[in-house]
Design goal:
Elements: H1 3-15, H2 22-41, H3 50-62, E1 73-77, H4 85-91, E2 96-100, H5 104-116, E3 122-125, H6 129-132, E4 142-148, H7 152-162, E5 163-173, H8 179-188, E6 191-200, E7 206-214
Parallel strand pairs: 1-2, 1-4, 2-3, 4-5
Antiparallel strand pairs: 5-7, 6-7
Helix pairs in contact: 1-3, 2-4
């Protein structure tokens, strides 16, 4: 990652009041470099420009850092190109991180990224969320279950099956997902929308975090 990219990332993190230390910055740099390399061969992300990956995807992932638990398992459903899971792992390498991704190529990328960054506490689970619900390593044990840009109706059923008592579910959405709709969707799966937070990315795009807990 270039010095200009580092400055841009730190500026975006600062706007979200997220502290990124030098170790985290180095790990994020290795992640972005590897993602850029893979994107030239295999289209892992819709946006492939490095600046967009930083401003739109990496900074967005950083918005969740303040919601991370002090310990326990964090499960990222549909990790894809590593957003938000790998970014969160770069900032919190102590996390017991489970990256759930059923597609073969993204899962292979995630595994290589874990080795390259490195993130010794992270593991790739190469299956669908509904199948992961039968995996004793995560089912009913996750203190935080998160997803980015997955429809609530597709995300919440799998999230509930992974959730530990007292855990939280976070859906990273746009403000197009209305609060009343999110509240009703949560209730269908025994979840209460406990709070939400709106924020802006560096280019001005609006984003919304929806935080659910068990009823």
């Amino acid at each position: 990652m270039t010095s200009d990219e580092e400055v841009e990332l730190l500026r975006g993190a600062g706007a979200l009041r997220i502290a990124v230390d030098s170790g985290s910055l180095a790990r994020i740099g290795r992640f972005i470099d590897l993602l850029d390399l893979w994107n030239r061969r295999v289209r892992l992300t819709g946006d492939r420009g490095r600046r967009t990956l930083l401003r739109k995807h990496t900074v967005d992932s950083l918005a969740v850092v303040s919601e991370l638990p002090p310990s326990g398992i964090v499960a990222d459903i549909g990790s894809g190109g590593g957003f938000p899971g790998l970014v969160l792992g770069c900032v919190r390498p102590d996390l017991d991180l489970r990256l759930i991704e059923s597609r073969r190529r993204p899962a292979s990328f995630l595994a290589e990224a874990i080795r390259t960054i490195p993130l010794p506490g992270a593991t790739v689970i190469g299956t669908r969320a509904e199948d992961a619900s039968r995996d004793p390593a995560v089912a009913g044990r996750s203190d935080l279950v998160i997803s980015r840009a997955i429809r609530l109706e597709a995300f919440l059923p799998g999230a509930v099956s992974l959730l530990a008592p007292g855990g939280l579910v976070i859906a990273m959405q746009t403000p197009g997902v209305e609060i009343d709709h999110a509240r009703e969707a949560g209730l269908q799966y025994g979840l209460e929308l406990s709070r939400h937070r709106d924020y802006r990315l560096p280019a001005g795009e609006l984003r919304r975090l929806l935080v659910f807990s068990r009823l």
